[in-house]
Amino acid sequence: MLIERSPGSPGNKRVQQLIVDSLGALAAGWHVELDTFEDRTQRGSIGFASVVAGLRLVLACHYNSKYFPRDRQGRAFLGVTDSAVPCTILLELVMALDRELLNAKEQVLGSGWRQGGQRRVGLRARTP
After folding, report:
1. What is its EC number (predicted)?
2. What is the DSSP string of the chain?
3. Is 94 within 8 Å of 26 (Cβ atoms)?
4. How many other C-beta atoms lie within 10 A of the C-beta of residue 10?
5. Angle between helices 85-110 and 10-24 (to 10 degrees)
6. What value does the mean pLDDT take over residues 55-62?
7. How far apart are CA 15 and CA 90, in angstroms?
8. Whether the Cβ atoms of residue 108 and residue 119 lie closer than 8 Å to each other
9. What is the per-residue burial (b if ≥16 Cβ within 10 Å, else e) of 81-92?
10. CA quadruple 55, 13, 61, 37: dihedral sign
11. Residue 55: which of 18, 27, 83, 34 has the closest Cα?
12. Nearest Cα residue to 122 out of 108, 103, 104, 96
């Protein structure tokens, strides 16, 4: 994620695809979709996209970084804390919880739960 990824850039598309592929590969069956829109910026009208992944649990972060022109040495602004770190943390979190979420989902579905039901399922943290 730590690449130039301002909206409309090739790096933005690469990070978007990394997030979509990472979530789509998880066993719990995340429903992944893109919510796209255009907005006016200092560089004109640019397309934006939010990756939305649902499993009755929503975790969100923005993966776009602010745009700054390259510096005198030709270096791009990478935006470590805008928002490479939070997105990486969320991806690590869902990968770590994936098996537990799948087990919880199977437990709910196996107990006769139906849409609109009010069954609660808890996840237990395990210490190594």
Report:
1. 2.3.2.5
2. --S---TTSHHHHHHHHHHHHHHHTSTT--EEEEEEEEEEETTEEEEEEEEEEESS---------------TT-PPP--IIIIIHHHHHHHHHHHHHHHHHHHHHHHHHHTT--TT------------
3. yes
4. 10
5. 30
6. 79
7. 14
8. yes
9. eebbebbeebbe
10. negative
11. 27
12. 104
Question: CA-CA distance, 58 to 73, in Å (whole number)?
Answer: 40
Could you tell me which of 24, 82, 80 has the C-alpha nearest to residue 52? 24
Instruction: Read off the pLDDT of residues 15-26 as tens digits, 9 standing for 90 and up.
Output: 999 999 999 999
| Mean pLDDT score, 89-97 | 92
pLDDT, average across residues 88-109: 86
Long-range contacts of range 11-19, CB-CB < 8 Å, 24 or more positions apart? 12/63, 12/64, 15/63, 15/87, 16/49, 16/51, 16/63, 19/51, 19/63, 19/87, 19/91
Amino acid in position 27: A
Whether residue 85 contacts residue 63, with contact meaning beta carbons closer than 8 Å, is answered with no
